[in-house]
Design goal:
Blueprint lengths: L5 H10 L9 H47 L8 E4 L3 E4 L4 E8 L11 H22 L9 H7 L1 H12 L2 E7 L5 E8 L3 H16 L22 E5 L12 E4 L4 E3 L6 H7 L3 E3 L2 H5 L8 E10 L5 E4 L1 H8 L4 H6 L3 E4 L2
Parallel strand pairs: 6-10, 6-12, 7-11, 9-12
Antiparallel strand pairs: 1-2, 2-3, 3-5, 4-5, 7-8, 10-11
Helix pairs in contact: 3-5, 4-5, 5-6, 6-7
């Protein structure tokens, strides 16, 4: 065996091979090549493992995202009222929506101005339809928004201004040149800030009910403290409203616009609505220890006043602390 020349010794050292007596140049090259292949294979394996790990992380993130979407409220469990074929009120999400369709003027068909004009016409149609949807929104068991807008020019002007500021959430360009636009406006917030004060004013000027009314007893110092109220109103044809009332069998109001704080009613609405009892009981609105009661029947033409048993009413009023969650509108109503 001949020792390697100095140049090849350096190569051997760099490759981590013994260099004193390795054999012929051919054998030396083979060992160096083998070592190079091992390094290349190791590098490829490392790249594959890194890629696989990254892919696994992406899948995990995607799964978490999908899981979060599943935690949201499925469409089948939402309380949605259709208004003709042009709009709807989603009481679970607290939104009002309308669809508008627009076509370009004949003189612009086939020209660059066609789409912008069709879009503008669709938006105008959507705003007009949204106003119709809003007019029919139930305020309480006897009133709809149209009544307030008819009675007050101020409310009428304010609501119409809000409609023009409704958010465009979808626009579709059809093959025939028409455009379909969907607009949405929340019930809570600015809209509620106009309507809720009017509701409270109306309640204050209403005459007392005929006949002796049952006095509302002062809350007792003891009793179990709850964090919210869930009313199961399924099976009694109850309907959603901006200002629902919960009353007992004697007609005593347990919950309504007169015992809530305006700020909470404006920000989140007086009650939340769900179609599933378990979902309502676990809703963050009523937090971790809500009291669940059963609705016995409804009152009023709009069927948004819900009657509960006197015993359940007493349970709510048994602790003064329970009035706190009522003031903060921590109420969920479950409907069919």
């Amino acid at each position: 065996m001949n020792p390697l020349p100095l140049g090849r010794r350096r190569i051997a050292i760099a490759e981590g091979l013994p260099f004193w007596y390795v054999g012929s140049d051919v054998r030396m090259r083979k060992k160096i090549n083998d070592k190079g292949h091992e390094k290349e294979a190791a590098m490829r394996l490392k790249i594959c493992l890194t890629t696989a790990f990254a892919a696994a992380m992406i899948l995990c993130i995607a799964e978490v995202t999908v899981g979060q979407e599943k935690v949201g409220i499925p469409e089948g469990t939402q309380i949605v009222e259709q208004v003709g074929n042009k709009g709807m009120v989603n009481w679970t999400e607290g939104t009002m929506e309308a669809i508008g369709i627009g076509a370009p003027p004949e003189r612009y068909i086939g020209k660059p101005q066609a789409r912008p004009n069709a879009l503008r016409a669709a938006q105008v149609d959507a705003y007009r339809n949204l106003l119709e949807v809003i007019n029919g929104v139930r305020v309480d068991s006897t009133t709809v928004i149209r009544d307030f807008m008819t009675e007050s020019d101020v409310i009428n002007t304010q609501v119409q201004g809000m409609v023009k500021g409704a958010k465009v959430i979808k626009q579709e360009y059809m093959s025939d040149g028409t455009v379909e636009v969907t607009v949405r406006m929340p019930i809570a917030g600015n809209f509620a800030a106009v309507i809720i004060p009017r509701i409270m004013e109306k309640k204050q000027v209403q005459p007392p009910p005929a006949g002796p009314a049952a006095p509302a007893p002062a809350p007792a110092p003891g009793g179990e403290v709850f964090t919210g109220l869930v009313v199961d109103a399924r099976g009694i044809q109850a309907r959603p409203a901006m200002s629902p009332r919960i009353i007992d069998e004697n007609g005593r109001e347990i919950y309504g616009s007169m015992n809530v704080e305006r700020e909470y009613a404006v920000q989140q609405g007086m009650s939340g609505y769900a179609r599933d009892l378990t979902a309502a009981q676990s809703n963050t609105r009523v937090t971790n220890n809500p009291l669940s009661v059963k609705g016995l029947k409804t009152e009023g033409a709009g069927r948004s006043d819900i009657v509960i048993a006197k015993a359940d009413a007493e349970k709510i009023l048994a602790a003064g602390d329970n009035l706190s969650f009522l003031k903060k509108c921590r109420v969920m109503i479950v409907l069919d």
